[in-house]
């Protein structure tokens, strides 16, 4: 575009948008074609015998799939760039048209070069009305404060000024500024679009696809603000869902392809959408962390790569990546089974020592997977979530209520989102808190309104949940379930006022672990006690801390059928909506 | 590690208790210790441990389907081959196993077992 005001005035953003629509259609078709090719490929892989021609056919299909993927990405990028360009150009165009209208009203003439001439007029002076001649104002695109002071030394003319002169100058400046802004926008987007140009006869390889990811980042830089401004981030999950549902398909695609990080963690966005957004964002996050070289980044990077590997494998139940991030000790929210279509959904808050690392992927995530597998035997319409959406304390001796109090609102918001996106008329939600996570669940449950949608609460290996009685958790004491292994030291942490020295861990070893008369633990009443009044279910005692050299093993096996079949089955039966089937255990 | 199997034989609610009884007797004869029992009519379950430390369970769940699970004691992590035993019925892919669809004159009969049950356990 040549930067003239006439061009800007006559520019039709809808033409750019139409072009965007056309690119969108190509992108969409390529995406669909790629899915078809991938399906065909998967079928071939299953059916084919090891023959050379089959291998060659597969290689061709893989190439076709890559080509479609590349087309899908790049055409989608062009669409977003054009849409953002249209939106950005609309602003200076509006400013220009306003200035032109005002000039016409004042009977000023706007010349081809953007200068404005004004007619003669009479001006009131001390000596009476005096005629002032017409004139010509040349626009200046700089803002008034940017202008260098006039040091030419010529004193301002004393003769009376035509009152039109000032108005004409202001109009000429506005016209010049609008044209300059449009030219800047044009240059920026031209550069972005230019980078999207593909070489003729391009062979789409893995490296090209990596370039496509870089292209995405480029478009993100140019068009990201335009997308970010659109999100009503301060609204409730239910309102966010309404906003998302109301967006045209094309805009949703823009968020998913260009700014997935902005919507992947939003509570109220449907699970399948969050999953797609987070899967799109994961490689970017991995790339970012791979460029840092501190221990913390390396730990998170290892975990993210392991998660990515697992996401690529087909699994039953299928995995949904509902959240991922590197803030604090790292964030990861993963569902086994679709939490929007499942009637039964559990969300497990992990505890002491949990962070985004290799152990999290291998052990903590597996707990949610085991619960999902077990619950689906009870009711096939079940999903289980591991929710690492807060910073858990990393050591016994730094354990205070602060982390739980910070985590509770985030958990509350997450459950509220699930509640608004679940498609069942009468869903059944279970909140599970393990270890310190049970305190986080307790804090969320005692906040006004309780945890949205939650019918049952399971507390496992709990050091106390901050309340004295089960009914304070707001779901009725018959809906609060407790698993507490007799050899799990965390469920015996002495109350804070009993701690003499060395923190709770130190005191633990010097104190009788089975002090039967005492039902106060670290964060309040022992949830397994009669006084607390919850439903205690049977779990394995677990290895003893000192005599079996079990240390904290009994604290870590509640979910795991390989280690404690009874506990895992009890958790599954509650999550699956059959709490009447738990195998009970006497209170402590 | 663990292995899970779903039972395709329809076991009527009236005969689930008897089915559990047959399994329990067999386990006890093998020296297994019963660790827990869920005494539900519709969805009974039994959990046991073998002298070598294997865990084993039989649980009735959704649609009256019975599930067996066996878990090994702790072992060092290593690659494990898929089981080689062939099911005595269709080998359904993971995630597509239907609810029980095989009728048994004995186990599917909707009357309680009269007198001594003939234990013809059709574990699949």
What does this 3D model show about the protein?
The complex is a heterodimer of chains A (588) and B (124). Chain A is α/β, with parallel strands linked by helices and 588 residues long. Chain A is built from 15 helices and 15 strands. Helix content of chain A is 48%, strand content 12%. In chain A, α9 crosses α10 and α12 packs across α13. About 2% of the residues of chain A have low confidence. Chain B is an alpha+beta fold and 124 residues long. Chain B has a domain of 70 residues. In chain B, strands 1-5-4-3-2 form a 5-stranded antiparallel sheet, with helices on one face. Helix content of chain B is 14%, strand content 23%. Chain B starts with a strand and ends in a 53-residue tail after the last strand. Chain B has 1 helix and 5 strands, in the order βαββββ. In chain B, β3 and β4 form a beta hairpin. Classes of the chains: A alpha/beta (588), B alpha+beta (124). At the A-B interface, α11 and α15 of A face β2, β4 and β5 of B.
List keywords for this structure.
heterodimer; A: 588 residues; alpha/beta; Rossmann fold; 2 domains; 8-stranded mixed beta sheet; 3-stranded antiparallel beta sheet; 15 strands; B: 124 residues; alpha+beta; 5-stranded antiparallel beta sheet; 5 strands; globular; disordered C terminus
Strand content of chain B: 15-25%
- What is the structural class of chain B? alpha+beta
* Main β sheet profile of chain B: 5 strands, antiparallel
Q: Quickly name the level 1 CATH class of the largest domain in chain A.
A: Alpha Beta
- Mean pLDDT over the residues of chain A: 86
Estimated share of beta-strand residues of chain A: 5-15%
End-to-end distance of chain A, in Å? 80 Å
Q: Give the radius of gyration of chain B.
A: 15 Å
What's the main sheet of chain A like? 8 strands, mixed
- Please report the distance between the alpha carbons of the first and last residues of chain B: 20 Å
Helix percentage of chain A: 40-55%
What is the total tally of β strands of chain B?
5
Number of helices of chain A: 15
Compute the number of strand runs of chain A. Answer: 15
Integer average pLDDT of chain B: 88
Total domains of chain A: 2
Low-confidence stretches of chain B: 116-124
Order of helices and strands of chain B: EHEEEE
SSE pattern of chain A, N- to C-terminal: HHHEEEEEHHHHHHHEEEHEHEHEEHEEEH
| Principal-axes shape call of chain A | elongated
In CATH terms, what is the architecture of the largest domain in chain A?
3-Layer(aba) Sandwich
